[in-house]
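From the thread on structure requests for the teaching lab: each student submitted one protein with a one-line request. Submission from student K.M.:

"Model MADF domain-containing protein from Dryococelus australis, tokens only."
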Amino acid sequence: MEWSNEKCVALIHEYEKYPTLWNPKHATYYNRNKKHDAWVDVVNVIGFPVEEAKKKKMESLLRSYRRERAKAKSSMGAGKGM
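Reply posted by the TA:
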């Protein structure tokens, strides 16, 4: 299946609704069953299989975000013109 920009944004918005998936301080963050249930809820809204949304797309989006955040952080500093 093809991931459109709208589907990616929908995935991100649904992912945000479940702190079990992204917040290590949340009470159920380390509970695999609760995480799986949250992923099932997320993919029911966007209409993709769990493994495709979780392993392929969300990890790719997070990897891209971390890379861009690191670039921005490294460009800030003394003598960088900012």
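TA comment: The chain has one domain: 5-72. The mean pLDDT is 89.
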